[in-house]
Amino acid sequence: MKIRNIIMAIGLAMLQPATAQELKTFTLEDLSFGGTNFRNMMPKNMYTSWWGDVLMYVDSDEFGTVDTKTGKKTVITTTEEVNKAVAKHNEKEKMSWLFYASFPYADQPLALISNSRMRILYDWKKKEIVWSQECKGEAYSDWNAQSRAVAYVKDDQLCVRTADGKETLLTNDGSREIVYGQSVHRNEFGIDKGTFWSNDGKRLAFYHMDQSMVADYPQVNTFEREATYEPDKYPMAGMTSHKVTVGVYDINTGKTIYLKAGDPTDRYFTNIAWSPDNSTVYMFELNRDQNDCYLVAYDASTGDKKATLYRETSDKYVEPTHPITFLPWDNGKFIMQSQRDGYNHIYIMDESQTMRQLTKGEFVIVDVLGFNKKDKSIIVVANAESPVQRNIYAVNTKSGKMTLLDNGKGYHGGVLSASGTLLCDNYSEPDVPRNIEVVNTTTAKRNMIFSAPDPWKGYNVPEFSCGTIKAADGTTDLYYRMVKPIGFDPSKKYPTVVYVYGGPHAHNVDASWHWKSRNWETYMAQKGYLLFILDNRGSEDRGTKFEQATFRRLGQEEMKDQIKGVEFLKTLPYVDADRLGVHGWSFGGFMTISLMTNYPDVFKVGVAGGPVIDWKWYEVMYGERYMDTPETNPEGYEQTSLLNKAKNLKGKLQIITGMNDNTVVPQQCLMFLDACIEAGTQPDFFAYPGEGHNMRGHKSVHLHERITDYFETYLK
């Protein structure tokens, strides 16, 4: 009888809704990048691409079409079918997956598929390979669909392989000091590659960087029996920088010319673009101070300068990060992005230097997705609805009128079809993990084709919220995210951790899933902490006044804003003001130590990862943009340096670095430790051998375990 009652009780319990105690708890294997279960905790996605105006999906072992009204998927081919065709072509080869397949020709049923040894064009209707090309040993490869030529780096030399398989070495002096075909200027100015094909794929513009004059930073490989010297080229603020030139190779003539841009010393060349007729190369050119910018046109056949089309100056800095783009329906006009009126907006220009501002307002054009050629509109991403949102609009090129194409909420990004009449909109909202809609960019009609289930269902999830406070200037709105402890009780007081980044080109709070909360915050909320994250002045996409408030004094206005956040926290009855912690990485590590030493009585515990300690040890392009040089701004460098603040440290501080960090070099941490030794203060220090600026793979789990344990030991 008792056994029967127990069984009935269990059965009834299974029918009851899960209580908080029955919900699952998270582990760092769930929440940390590199964790064994991390992928399962991320919102599912449908990976899509366009074949002309036909929406395609790609998966590891198949690809096919997607109905843009219903989301129904129809398989076109599988790895098995592709490999049957591959075997007929080369019995030793095999394609392991189709995940990176693309569809370069709108009018042909061809998929571009590759492995580490060959790339092929597979005709899925004929089920055969119609073209193949060797790709063994390629690095930084850049394939052009029109000519089917590929540019790549091999053994430090820049090479081109044409569609018929002929390989040509464009260079013979490439080395770690003479760099070809790779991104330059340490990836600043929006640069992420070093080769740029003309539209017809018959000419190749490429970067040549001479960094022989740049000092070596002495990185060491400690994994050898005897540690070996493996230096990085690292030009520090105020020191000798590299020299960049731009070459143009012509496949038809086999000749290379260089753009006659003059002496490259202390200059930056960026945002390379081609004219529609492939005869002209355009690029933005900046002086080393980065306050004087030119848009210049060059003859692609001779390298001669044709015209200076635009000039922009600033008393702080000019920051071009987007190449010009020509209007598809008018080869004489192009769009240019600029912050000249205080916000990044679109301007329409022509070769006669006539300029017309197209978008206006106190918001930022974040990205240009492309064009609706039929309507002659530009499809853009902007934060016009709210600074924490990203929404997609069609911009009329005559009137500048912006038509909202999405639901007006959340955080959106998309890819346009070939004609630009259809948009695949992949987005999330604070309570929506992921939705995908296909949008008609003419009518703004939307069809939902995919909605991801909540991967955190069944887990004990904290409360995420967003709000605003005023900045230290008393007028500017700053957005924050708050993550309350699981099982939150407003009558209790909780230890609170301020997570901070605070630097340029980044933000922490937006209207995406969970208000963009980092998973570690959930782990800490599970352990009884309240998390607070504030985007101070100096962070991105709020206009130049907001972003440039920190000029020549990095960290100072940012700290004032973060302290305003602390003042707000102290008004909340459930925040324990005696148990405040702070944590950040990179610029956030700099902010963490800045706050710990400039406001030593506020924070009890801090964890600083990869911190900048003194900007004179940071790299030229970024450092001098925001701080000028140590010679021209000695007061600023002195004020922002943490070396002379080491004596102020009171709370418990753990500093963490990758011992082979080539972004914020280990010298930064080590010199702060030396300053603390001299001052008699006692930070803790941990280093990851062989790691760079961020911990890779499963080491991320170890890292976050260490960060958590430090707060558990000294703050809780």
List the helices and strands and how they pair.
Blueprint: H1 2-15, H2 28-31, E1 48-51, E2 54-58, E3 62-66, E4 73-78, H3 79-89, E5 110-114, E6 118-123, E7 128-134, E8 139-143, E9 150-154, E10 157-161, E11 167-169, E12 178-180, E13 195-197, E14 203-210, E15 216-217, E16 220-221, E17 228-229, E18 232-233, E19 243-250, E20 255-258, E21 267-274, E22 280-287, E23 292-299, E24 305-313, E25 325-327, E26 330-338, E27 345-350, E28 355-357, E29 365-372, E30 377-382, E31 391-396, E32 402-404, E33 411-416, E34 422-429, E35 432-440, E36 446-451, E37 463-470, E38 477-484, E39 494-499, H4 519-526, E40 530-534, H5 544-547, H6 556-570, E41 575-585, H7 587-598, E42 605-609, H8 620-627, H9 634-640, E43 652-658, H10 667-679, E44 684-688, H11 699-714
Parallel strand pairs: 39-40, 39-41, 41-42, 42-43, 43-44
Antiparallel strand pairs: 1-2, 2-3, 3-4, 5-6, 6-7, 8-9, 9-10, 10-11, 12-14, 13-14, 14-19, 15-18, 16-17, 19-20, 21-22, 22-23, 23-24, 25-26, 26-27, 27-28, 29-30, 30-31, 31-32, 33-34, 34-35, 35-36, 37-38, 38-40
Task: Characterise this structure.
The chain has 716 residues and is α+β, with helices and mostly antiparallel strands. Helices cover 16% and strands 35% of the residues. The strands form eleven sheets. Strands 37-38-40-39-41-42-43-44 form an eight-stranded mixed sheet, with helices on both faces. Strands 12, 13, 14, 19 and 20 form a five-stranded antiparallel sheet that branches. β10 and β11 form a beta hairpin. The longest helix has 16 residues, at 699-714. The chain is globular, with a radius of gyration of 27 Å.
